[in-house]
Specification:
Number of helices: 2
Helix content: over 70%
Radius of gyration: 45 Å
Largest sheet: none
């Protein structure tokens, strides 16, 4: 019986060396699997983000084009141009009138005397 007990102890000691190696291999396999999953998840999220970004850019482009080509927008732009011209003309008229008034005020004493 002594031989069976020593044989079992020897077998237990032999396997006790392999247990940490097996545990390390299991940890490495799980880490590799987790790394692969993380990479796939990150790539999927990046792809989804790029798709969403492109979709938003397309929507914005369509909206800007729709606004630019709108009849109401064209009418408003035309009115702004007309108003700008009228304001410039009014400023010029006021400037000329003030110059004429200043000239008249300067020449008035000469005419009276």
């Amino acid at each position: 019986m002594a031989t069976n007990t020593t044989g079992a102890k020897k077998t237990l000691l032999d396997y006790s060396v392999y247990v940490p190696l097996g545990a390390a291999k299991l940890a490495a396999d799980k880490a590799k699997d987790l790394s692969g999953r993380s990479l796939k998840l990150a790539q999927a999220r990046r792809k989804n983000l790029a798709k969403t970004y492109d979709d938003l850019a397309d929507r914005g482009k369509k909206l800007a084009s729709s606004i630019q080509n709108s009849t109401y927008t064209k009418r408003a732009v035309s009115q702004v141009k007309t108003a700008r011209s009228q304001v410039k003309a009014a400023a010029t008229s006021v400037r000329k009138a003030s110059t004429a008034s200043a000239d008249a005020a300067r020449d008035a004493p000469k005419k009276v005397s």
